Amino acid sequence: MSQDVTSATPTSGSPEPASTRPRRARIIGLDGVRGLLCLSIAVTHITGHYSPKTAATWQTNVFGFSLVYFFVLSGFLLSLPFVRNLIKDRAAATLPNVTDYTVHRLARIMPAYVLIFLFVNFVLQVSYVANPALQPLGTDDGTGMITDPGMLIANLTLTQSYFPAYIQTGINPSWSLTLEYAFYASLPVLFLVVFRLRKRLSVNPLVLATAVPAFLLVLGLVGRAFIPVVFAHSGTTDLMLLNWGPNWAAVFTKSFLTNADNFALGMLAAIVFVAMERGELPERLSRRVRMLSTVAILPVLLGCGVLLVFASEFVTAGVGIVAALMILIIVAPLARHQKSRLATALDFRPIRFVGEISLSAYLWHFPVLLMLGRIGWMSGDTLPGMLLNIVLALAVTILAGSVTYYLIEKPAMNYAKRIRAKKKPALA
Predict the structure, then answer these.
(1) pLDDT, tens digit, for every residue of 222-245?
(2) 16 three-class SS
(3) Which of 180, 191, 252 has the alpha carbon at shortest distance from 222?
(4) Residues 6+ apart with CB under 8 A from 12
(5) For residues 77 and 3, is the Cβ–Cβ distance under 8 A?
(6) DSSP letter string over 264-325?
(7) Where are the beta strands (DSSP E) in 136-189?
(8) What 3-state class would DSSP assign to 170?
(9) Which residue in 37, 203, 280, 352 is deepest, having the highest Cβ count within 10 Å?
(10) CA-CA distance, 311 to 315, in Å (whole number)?
(11) Can you give the three-state secondary structure of 119-144, one letter per residue?
(12) What does the pLDDT look like over 156-165, one tens digit per residue?
């Protein structure tokens, strides 16, 4: 879920020539976005589990679309170094080191995920051993300790979403990490082809860069087009089971085949960002990217409403477009090395901190809400009860996430950085 950020922070004044622009460690504002997204997803699950009627009244399920934004943000951030390398002079345009990339991606998620899963499964014993779509809301039914070897291995390797019998078991929101890893694996493979074409073709590298998100966009949209066909042959009409149950329909809807487009939309935003950063866009257009993105959001949202009625399988694609536009609204001034009040506001330290620990917090929030219910601390299905549940569960989630961030996540990331640092002198 949480990605590393590599780009420029804003400075005051007019845009600088591309050749003199410094590169810094992080794009301000995006950690804050990640923190808000993590909290939104947690609110969706907390309210939907313990206050379903009140949640339906207040439409808290809308916050669940934040997960789409996470995928778009991953597409944006992870593709940046690939696009930046691609637009260098032909001789210098080389694929980023795939070994470093792999080590970094594994260190970013797996140590925290594995240790949190082991604790949740063997100590707290609130792993889902049966598909949660079959369990009543507001209970911890179907949870316990996974002992089945196949289910245990699938959850430890984040492959549970590929098997109908195992989908949604373990820490059930972790299915999104399986999807993230599918994207991680595809990125260097697809860009390898594009980098080879860069050496052979006299084509604008930014145009070449769009080939990767174009392929993923088509893949995702074609996959979504087949969702009604898959549903029609699934043997049930229950939408909850079709999307989350122990069947091949749910496996299909949670696969990269039907979600690749969300990552692609983030990649397209990254290409626009790099084009602005390097002065490749006409100045007149570059100055208007933020305004155009803002104006486009409303008609896209209206389009999402139409899709919800006539082609609901494409709604999240519309949400992905909104997410990509929102990213551009935040980062467009930064690409031009100007100040952005929105980015600065999102970089507010408490929000940014939640973004930094968002992976751990994301993994903890569902086991936490289950444990709090098990010990009788969660309130009933009323507005005051729902608000109390949110405050309590988020507080415990942030506390648990902070502990695992400093004890597991951060040391793992630092270790990966030391491995890369040792390789550089050896290569030199």
Answers:
(1) 999 999 999 999 989 999 999 999
(2) coil
(3) 252
(4) 338, 339
(5) yes
(6) HHHHHHHHHHHHHHTT-S-HHHHTTHHHHHHHHHHHHHHHHHHHHHH-GGGHHHHHHHHHHH
(7) 143-144
(8) strand
(9) 37
(10) 7
(11) HHHHHHCCEECCCHHHCCCCCCCCEE
(12) 999 999 999 9
pLDDT above 70: percentage of residues in the chain: 93
Residue 371 and residue 389 in contact, taking contact as beta carbons nearer than 8 Å = no
Q: Is the dihedral of CA 42, 364, 32, 22 positive or negative?
A: negative
- CA-CA distance, 130 to 142, in Å (whole number)? 5
Find the farthest-apart pair of alpha carbons in the chain and give their distance in angstroms, rounded. Answer: 66
Distances (CA, A) of 199 to 82, 191, 202, 285, 297: 15, 13, 8, 29, 37
Cβ atoms within 10 Å, residue 12: 7
Q: How far apart are CA 398 and CA 242, in angstroms?
A: 32
Q: Write the single-letter amino acid at 314.
A: F
Residue 215: phi, psi to the nearest 5?
-65, -45
Supply the pLDDT for residue 426. Answer: 54
Q: What is the spatial distance between Cα 302 and Cα 44, in angstroms, rounded to a whole number?
A: 23
Phi, psi of 144, rounded to the nearest 5 degrees = 165, -145
Residue with tokens 């050749």: 19
